[in-house]
Design a protein that fits this description.
GO terms for molecular function: ligase activity; ubiquitin conjugating enzyme binding; ubiquitin protein ligase activity; zinc ion binding. InterPro entries: 7-in-absentia-prot_TRAF-dom (IPR018121), SINA-like_animal (IPR004162), TRAF-like (IPR008974), Znf_SIAH (IPR013010). It holds the Pfam family Sina_ZnF. There is one protein chain. With about 180 residues, this protein is α+β, with helices and mostly antiparallel strands. It has a single domain, classed as Apoptosis, Tumor Necrosis Factor Receptor Associated Protein 2, Chain A (Sandwich), CATH 2.60.210. The chain is built from five helices and twelve strands. Strand 6 and strand 7 form a beta hairpin. The radius of gyration is 17 Å and the shape is globular. Strands 3, 5, 6, 7, 10 and 11 form a six-stranded mixed sheet that branches. It has a four-stranded antiparallel sheet with strand order 4-12-8-9. It has a two-stranded antiparallel ribbon with strand order 1-2.
């Protein structure tokens, strides 16, 4: 199905659906979580789309930055999104607040590479919350935007913490997350 965009595999018809779900040449969807954006396009067009259609997303340069999520006490499901640019790549930083079950809210923080799964394997990220004699750290390999945020949240393959933990590290309802990207 994706031969026109570069996939050169020839498969038996029974193997095609499974491959098409993971094919690196399938169109990329808009990686913004929670957005009702239906955009799809090539990997090369993702950053251009984000800069034009989602102008509110801030981009910071450098391997070490602070991702500031403001007003974490906002009710309901909320997404905070930011871009980090380093090593010639763009990374999408996402903090998502969800109500997992009645009255229990959880925060999920993750880093996605605007790139392929293979490219993502070349990097590692560290998320760190620092507070009064406390530190909470998560280190992992970024996911490709092909995988998206929802898969990571579903599997808790990200930094997960509840509202009580968030308040231990928050300052006036704002949460600063130190983000470090490194190469492997």
């Amino acid at each position: 199905q994706y031969a026109t965009t570069g996939c050169s595999l020839t498969l038996h018809h029974t193997e095609k659906p499974e491959h098409e779900d993971i094919c690196e040449y399938r169109p990329y969807s808009c990686p913004c979580p929670g957005a009702s954006c239906k955009w799809q396009g090539s990997l090369e067009a993702v950053m251009s789309h984000l800069m034009h259609a989602h102008k509110s997303i801030t981009t910071l340069q450098g391997e070490d930055i602070v991702f500031l999520a403001t007003d974490i006490n906002l009710p309901g499901a909320v997404d905070w999104v930011m871009m980090q640019s380093c090593f010639g790549h763009h990374f999408m930083l996402v903090l998502e607040k969800q109500e997992k079950y009645e009255g229990h809210q959880q925060f999920f923080a993750i880093v996605l590479l605007i790139g392929t799964r293979k490219q993502a394997e070349n990097f590692a990220y560290r998320l760190e919350l620092n507070g009064n004699r406390r530190r909470l750290t998560w280190e992992a390999t970024p996911r490709s935007i092909h995988d998206g945020v929802s898969a990571a949240v579903r599997n808790s393959d990200c930094l997960v913490f509840d509202t009580a933990i968030a308040h231990l590290f928050a300052d006036n309802g704002n949460l600063g997350i130190n983000v470090t990207i490194s190469t492997c």
